[in-house]
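User: tokens in, sequence out, please.
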């Protein structure tokens, strides 16, 4: 935000092209009596070239329905891929 480069602008344009092509997609909700709660999490290690921070994400399903998801850059720099995954898992559990 403070010092955008040409690479940042290319990333923004790529994201906007992606959103334009996927505008017809959406979330579907299914009628279900299942109370099966499943959570999935993942993280990359030092994926940001600018500050070497990891990006973690999760999605939580109730039965077949997606009820919560998140994807964001982690607040601290992980020293290993295991630490990045652990932080993502902690965010999922929270």
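Assistant: Sequence out:
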């Amino acid at each position: 935000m403070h010092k955008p480069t040409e690479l940042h602008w290319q990333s923004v344009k790529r994201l906007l092209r992606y959103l334009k092509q996927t505008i017809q997609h959406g979330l579907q909700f299914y009628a279900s009596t299942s109370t099966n709660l499943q959570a999935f999490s993942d993280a990359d290690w030092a994926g940001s070239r600018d500050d070497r921070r990891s990006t973690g994400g999760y999605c939580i399903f109730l039965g077949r329905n997606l009820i919560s998801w998140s994807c964001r850059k982690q607040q601290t720099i992980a020293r290993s891929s295991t630490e990045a995954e652990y932080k993502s898992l902690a965010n999922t559990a929270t």
